[in-house]
Design brief:
six-stranded mixed β-sheet; four-stranded mixed β-sheet
């Protein structure tokens, strides 16, 4: 009978250690990845960039399979920071292209975030997920810079 208690205690201790090791370890070495607030998950059609002091603007963008939310963006010209949050399960990224600009984030996994800083002139741009096949499945949108 004495052996059962020590074995049970060892089993409980092993389970406790295993549970403690299951925590999230977000050691992302990508310089473009950052812990940012999630983009709105509602199906809003358009978002305007907030304009903090100094003329810079921040644009939140959510990514899922296989769309961006919102799909139409607006920003003021100058320094624009895109805050990408992968709300899906598949890897995604964000690429902005047009008016001589072509910049993209690193590919991020579900639950991760990345930022992309771009200096933009007034005009029309496109944004899309550069992961193979995602753009063809609808992961694209338009950006108007004024």
């Amino acid at each position: 009978m004495r052996r059962k208690f020590p074995l049970a205690a060892v089993g409980v201790a092993a389970l406790a250690l295993a549970a403690a090791g299951c925590g999230s370890d977000n050691n992302n070495d990508s310089s473009s990845a950052a812990s940012t607030p999630a983009a709105p998950s509602t199906a809003a059609a358009t978002t305007k960039a907030a304009a903090p002091s100094g003329g810079a603007s921040t644009v939140p963008v959510g990514a899922t399979e296989f769309k961006f939310t919102p799909g139409t963006l607006k920003a003021k010209s100058g320094a624009v920071t895109f805050d990408l949050k992968n709300n899906g399960g598949a890897p995604h990224a964000l690429e902005v292209e047009g008016m001589g600009v072509e910049k993209k984030t690193a590919v991020i996994n579900g639950g991760q975030s990345a930022t992309l800083k771009v200096n933009l002139k007034p005009g029309k741009y496109e944004f899309y997920c550069p992961v193979d096949g995602h753009r063809q499945q609808g992961m694209e949108g338009t950006l108007t810079v004024t």
